[in-house]
Amino acid sequence: MILFSVLIVLLLIILAFVVFTGIRIIPQNMVGMVSVLGKYQRQMEPGFHVVMPFITRVDRVDLAQVPLRLSEQSVISRDNAEVIISLSLNYHVTDPYKFTFENADSVKSMVQQSRAHLRGIIGTMDLNEVLNGTERINAALSKELGSITDAYGVNVDRINIDTIQPTPEIQESMNKQINATREREAAIARAEGEARSIELTTKAQNDALVSTAEANAKAVRLAADAEAYRIQKANDILSTVDANYLVAQNIDAFRDVAKSPANTVIVPNTAIDALGELKVAGQLLNTNQK
């Protein structure tokens, strides 16, 4: 009796185990790839399923987008500069059959292709283009991977360059070049400043000289205009007087000469004739005789 009970319990346990191994639950955003005796049979959708135990295998494939960060990679640019680049990407499975049965490790194959294409792209660019061309590298990688990863049953939705870091030796050379460039630009700026200062000083001096010359010229013109005006006025006045005025002026001049210590005064005949016509001349001569 006891042995019979033990057998019943064992049979129930075995039956429960068989039933349990025949049950498959596929979560949302996954599919089940069913193989019977090692041969693919069908694809299970999400939900509860019962399969033949022991001879049936169900591989779950996640269809949701998966983020993946790749380890750092050393690459060489076209100008033989070594840089360390790290990538991250997002992918999702597009063909569960290819992903499961046509590739031993589709994710690993995708990563290897990403690294290979990255080396090829960086090899066509100079160091400065690499450091400043993150968007260009991302676009080129996406284009290259889009036509290849379909064979692995996956699609790369997005790929990003996380970091681009030159090696310490390259970084040191870049720092020296940057410092030299800054010093050269500073020297050029100082030279341009000094040249500008000299230019402004010279211009100010020239402007001052021009202003002084213009002022002197204006003063000379004004003096010449004043002299010409004086002469013109004198000429105008002389043109209005008669001959007697001029003779009177001669008499005054002769009087001044007569007062001088000289004993003899020589007078032209024409002047004597003119003096004789004036009454005041006779009086002057009579005065001298007395």
Automatic annotation (TrEMBL):
Q: Which Gene3D superfamilies match?
A: Band 7 domain
Q: Name one GO cellular component term.
A: membrane
What's a Pfam family this protein contains?
Answer: Band_7
Superkingdom field: Bacteria
Which InterPro entries does the UniProt record give?
Answer: Band7/mec-2_domain, Band_7, Band_7/SPFH_dom_sf, Stomatin_HflK_fam
Q: Which residues form the Band domain?
A: 21-178
Q: Report the protein name in the record.
A: SPFH/Band 7/PHB domain protein
Q: What is the organism of origin for this protein?
A: Weissella confusa
